[in-house]
Amino acid sequence: MAELEVTVVTSARAAQTREWVVLLPPGATVFDALKACGLNAADPAYAASVWGKSAAVQHHLHDQDRVEWCRALKVDPKVARRERFASQGSRGAGLFSKRRPGAKSGY
Asked: Quick check: 33 and 52 in contact, CB under 8 A?
């Protein structure tokens, strides 16, 4: 069986990304891909995913997979949105929050 070609992408800081294309033996895992790029798979500040879906480091890879090594979320996006909406109120958030004075609602 041929080697697997896997793309590994990471973002150490905001607006900074690095990408590697690595060749791995058949049966390789996310851990193997991260190790091939010199990344620490045991770092708790990061989380692995394959094509945007959360994956454990023991997950077996397929040819042409994309492994993302991203900083873990500090706050759940749904919770953050609810809190932001609660603090702004219904007038300051949403699709029609910036309408002209005197305009009909929904325009």
From this structure: no
In the chain, the number of structural domains is 1
Asked if residues 41 and 31 have their Cβ atoms less than 8 Å apart, the reply is yes
User: For the chain, which residues score pLDDT lower than 70?
Assistant: 1, 89-99, 104-107
Among all chains, which residue has been given the structure tokens 């873990």? 72
The single residue listed with the structure tokens 């002209």 is 100
Which whole-number Å values give the CA distances from 65 to 58, 75, 92, in the listed order? Answer: 14, 28, 42
Return the CATH number at 28.
Answer: 3.10.20.30
